[in-house]
Amino acid sequence: MSIQPNIYWLASYPKSGNTWTRAFIANLLNEETEAVDINALDTGAIASGRDWVETALDFDINELSHDEIDRLRPTAYRWLSQQLESPGYHKIHDAYTYLPNGEALIPIDTSKGVLCIIRNPLDVAISFAHHNSCSIDKAIANMAKADYAFCAQSKRYYPQLRQRLLSWSGHVLSWANAPGLNKLIVRYEDMKQNSVATFSCMASFLELPHDKKSVTEALEHCKIEKLQAQEAASPFKERAAKSKSFFRKGLVGDWKNTLTDKQINTLINDHRSVMQRFGYLDAQEQPCEHSKEEEALNE
Known about the structure:
Blueprint (H helix, E strand, L loop, with lengths): L6 E6 L5 H12 L20 H8 L8 H18 L4 E5 L18 E8 L2 H12 L3 H8 L5 E2 L12 E2 L3 H9 L6 E5 H6 L1 H11 L6 H10 L2 H10 L21 H4 L2 H17 L22
Parallel strand pairs: 1-2, 1-3, 3-6
Antiparallel strand pairs: 4-5
Helix pairs in contact: 1-9, 2-3, 4-5, 6-12, 8-9
């Protein structure tokens, strides 16, 4: 049976703008005048959601190992793609990896496209530390681990499946270099600093309304201040249990006021080549004050 590719993947390393993107999409699709509730961002499934994957497979997976579940995930994604009558927009933090049999975790035949969202690792480190309720040094160390994974605990019944993130560089390259995928790469910095043009490009790629009026209105509804106000009124269900809040600052360049010279140098040493490729370092290998446009971003 042929699979209809109906899934647009919203792929990013954590704390890089994925939820903001989903809020934008939800508001773009919303026919009401009020902003969409942050706890009702029904743009699509989260790739690592245990409940829906179990529904797709139609049996209890709680006694399976992480590796055994991973081998079944492509089947779940094919099932999901077949259920969709129109394209869905699905969050994924997993890196683009391959199973022992050579099959990609994310099957190309389900994938209508991939929106890859990248953020400066100097800023990611700060947000990642807050998200995980750990020190910035610990977050930086985790971002350098080639085998780093979310939800890799051995305990069963965890609501999220294991997500192999790899290192920050490994994650970015896994998606940017993935063969055969229709993809658009955007940077968080451009989403913040050139919002209407960048989100219009994203909406066009995702086959969504992308006229200036629609994009501007959707962006107005998902300003960071409005997302924060919603979270203050009603806790965000995707907030990590130990984290005080999900929508914190959303700033570009907060690293200049927060990171030590040692932390900056460690991140640059860990991720130099990828930071250069995507315009986060200048010709002298120093952090860019304002991230440069990378001419070959989507080549």
